[in-house]
Amino acid sequence: MTTVTVRGIRAEIRAARLRSRPAQARRERNDTMYLVILGFLIYGGILVQAVRRMIDAPPIGPAPPNLPVAQWLFVGCAVLGLGLLVRALLVFGPVVASGPFQFWLLSTPLNRRSLLGRRFWWLAAIGAVAGGLPGLAASALLKADLTGKLLSTAVCAGMAAGVVAVCVLLQQKARSGQRLSTVLVVVGALVAAAAVFVTPPVLDLPLLTAGAAVPPIVGIVLAYRALGTLDRAALAGGAEILAASRVAVNWMDVSLFAGMVSARKWRSIGKVSSRALRGVRHRAMVYADIRRISRNRTAFSVWLGLLLTPYAAQRLLPETFVPTVQLVACAIAVSPFAAGLRHICRSAAMRRSLGGSDAGLRLAHLVAPAVMALLWTAATSPASGFALASAVVPIGAVAFVYRRASQPSFDYSGGAVDTPFGLFQPNTVRQLLRGPLLLLFAAAVQLYL
């Protein structure tokens, strides 16, 4: 009796695919592989050169001002980023199985750990690289020596790989993962706030490395052992949103991904209490927009968390650039409150059913973002010393939000330009920069005030 192994099944499937394809399909596959390998070599070479320069850069020049503040602020941002990474990974899976792999292979008595092991190790490796690069960049900015750069890179890479392992362990316990994400975000925000408003001690990097080295290794081992316990429902839960993210990346349209995430979010809420709207016409629309915003806790969390950004810039950057940081942070903080404005601008059927002029409908749904921008600017004005450039902040943020919300659907019919990196459409780049260019203009105005 012949023993069926996962490696044998993969080899047989690969051979069957080659036999079933005609010669033309094989040539097309080879052309695609050539383009992928060429892009990997080009962009991978650029990344390798950047990493080598950051490693070889000597710590010349004076140390950055408020070095302990910068160190602890980076630690707080790293913990906060890990919390957000946990939330994002649990949305996708992180281990995902879809299509024939889910239907044919996961229904067999083959060892599930062997089936999913390759995907898990790829996820852990990608997480380690994605976490190590910010650690290396931060250590280079802080003028660290070679030992400090290696330790910082190792800590960040290990923490990111450990988060991937923890997410695999919590893949069948979504609520526990959400609680862990909330705890990490709160701890990261508190550490960042303490670094901004209190002068912390200098960070002992070797001690931090020793404390952060063991948990990721233990987590990866436990997660690999737990791969065999993942059921098909847990593995297929993120297939739909993963496919939507691929389409959004290929078509460079974030709304394709954001719409599905929003639908899943409201399905998880289930039901809300319903009350009659107050007032008539535009007043009722403003009240409905406020009710919609009150149910979006994430928007308020982002709004509150970004309040620290101008104060951190005040401690680390020259005084001239603080209003610019304030402008960018305000635009990001106000964007989640413009959901109603985006729906009104992108749905002609909704505008016709509500009646009235388009300008009146858009102004009614612009009230909430404008009020939140004014409140955010007032709360962060002490960081900029109540400079005249701060007056541009709410205007620029609201203009950015309106510009992005009123953007029409993507138009891919423009002409293409042949470049050494392939064909690209200038019209697509113009559509992607709709809004950021206005923000850049507002920042330039701030520098002259």
TrEMBL record:
The chain crosses the membrane at residues 33-52, 72-99, 120-144, 150-170, 182-199, 205-224, 298-314, 320-339, 360-379, 385-402. Keywords: Membrane, Transmembrane, Transmembrane helix. It comes from the Bacteria. The keyword Transmembrane helix applies. The keyword Transmembrane applies. It holds the Pfam family DUF6297. This is Uncharacterized protein. It comes from Kibdelosporangium phytohabitans.
